[in-house]
Design a protein that fits this description.
Elements: E1 9-14, E2 37-43, E3 59-62, E4 68-72, E5 75-81, E6 85-88
Antiparallel strand pairs: 1-2, 1-5, 2-3, 3-6, 4-5
Length: 89
């Protein structure tokens, strides 16, 4: 993949949504919740004011409405500012 985020942006591959509940019920696509965790795929260089704290390969938690969804090479990714990331797992 040849995507290089600019400034303090991060490209995240979201974890897949849950297919079943703990009790074994299958969740339909319309009721699946958007995942709130994922793996960092690419990181921008940062800015003079913002040092990049995440790196490629980190598992991160982010807000429910964080980032912009993009589709690259048949996969869905999120691109977001580093400040939208809540924690590194």
């Amino acid at each position: 993949m040849n995507v290089k985020p600019l400034s303090d942006r991060v490209l995240v591959l979201p974890n897949p949504a849950e297919e079943k509940t703990a009790g074994g019920l299958i969740i339909p696509d319309t009721a699946k919740e958007k995942p709130l965790a994922g793996k960092v795929v690419a990181v921008g260089p940062g800015t003079s004011d913002i040092k990049m704290e995440v790196k490629v390969g980190d598992e991160v938690l982010y807000g429910k409405y964080a980032g912009t969804e993009i589709h690259i090479d048949g996969k869905d990714y999120l691109i977001m500012k580093q400040q939208d990331i809540l924690a590194i797992i």
